[in-house]
Amino acid sequence: PRSVIFDTDPSPDDAVAFLAALVSPDELEVLAITTVAGNVPVELTTRNALKALELARRTDVPVYAGAAAPLVRKLITAEHVHGRTGFDGYDLPAPTKLPQASFAPDAIVELVMSRPSGAVTLCCLAPLTNVALAMAREPRLAQHLAGIVLMGGSMSEAGNITPAAEFNFYVDPEAAARVFSSGASITMIPLDCTHQALITDARLEILRSAGTPVGTAFYHLLEFNKRFDRSKYGWPGGPLHDATVTAYLLQPNLFDGRHVHVEIECSSQLTLGASVVDWWSVAGKPANATVLRTIDSDGYFKLIFDRLLRL
Ligand code: BDR
Ligand code: CA
């Protein structure tokens, strides 16, 4: 199996992403979960990660808490989507375990650098603060990784937090910019894909009718999410953003994309955090990321919910 670290700010779509990986031991070995401020402050994202592991009876997986704020900006959160706790909609069992003592960026450096080059893939589901900090602490990190698969940015789908920017990149644009200029092998899954992957009632019903503790919990958590996306976008359901990262690792042929040049806007007030994707290679700059643009959404939900319901 491929060794992975999930860097995350749970919200339910993050939790689906790492839990689906945990039940895929033939393909993925989850070394750790690292948390960061994003959807809600880091104390809550850490607590939510621990709660999700508790629900899955996988408290053996170490959780490291990371950055409480972006590199240079004030934290912006998304309680308007995920509720005050980041996990509104269902009361998960309180965690019985504490996070590990080390700071997440240090843990990332240690876990990656103590293994051979090309052994570890970072799965990034949140603002990229921890990853940028880890790269600053260990300049060889980017090259030592097998790669980074991340949910973030938007190419032709406009923004979901400002007209121009997707949430994860908007919260910490300087971190995103550093990661994209780091030389690491990056696969970016933008809103262009995740807005095709909507949790419709029929898809939610798969979770509810499973009747298992995990199915019931995620039915309620994702149902809470859906209220926001329904009223805001008029869609039949909210996007299941972050589990696309796990789906890509398990079944890359569900996606289509291109190896292109991507830059992150860090100075304009109007377009702060926008990902500028040179899809037609008009600038002639070297490609630094594979940007996925389409997804087989039926295949995606089948894969991810099948795995989740193994729990
Ligand atoms: C991203 O923002 C978060 O709310 C989701 O978990 C996802 O990582 C989508 O813009
Ligand atoms: Ca997330």
Report what the structure shows:
The chain is α/β, with parallel strands linked by helices and 311 residues long. Helix content is 39%, strand content 17%. It has 13 helices and 9 strands. It has a 9-stranded mixed sheet with strand order 3-2-1-4-5-6-9-7-8, with helices on both faces. α1 (12-22) crosses α13 (297-308), α4 crosses α5 and α5 crosses α8. The two termini are 19 Å apart. The model has no long low-confidence stretch (mean pLDDT 96). Residues 11, 13-14, 39, 78, 81, 125-126, 151, 160, 166-168, 241-242 line the site of beta-D-ribofuranose. Beta-D-ribofuranose (BDR) binds next to α1 and α7.
How would you summarize this macromolecular structure in one to three sentences?
The chain is α/β, with parallel strands linked by helices. Helix content is 39%, strand content 17%.
Can you count the beta strands?
A: 9
Mean pLDDT score: 96
Gap between N and C termini, in Å?
A: 19 Å
The level of helicity is 25-40%
Question: What profile does the largest beta sheet have?
Answer: 9 strands, mixed
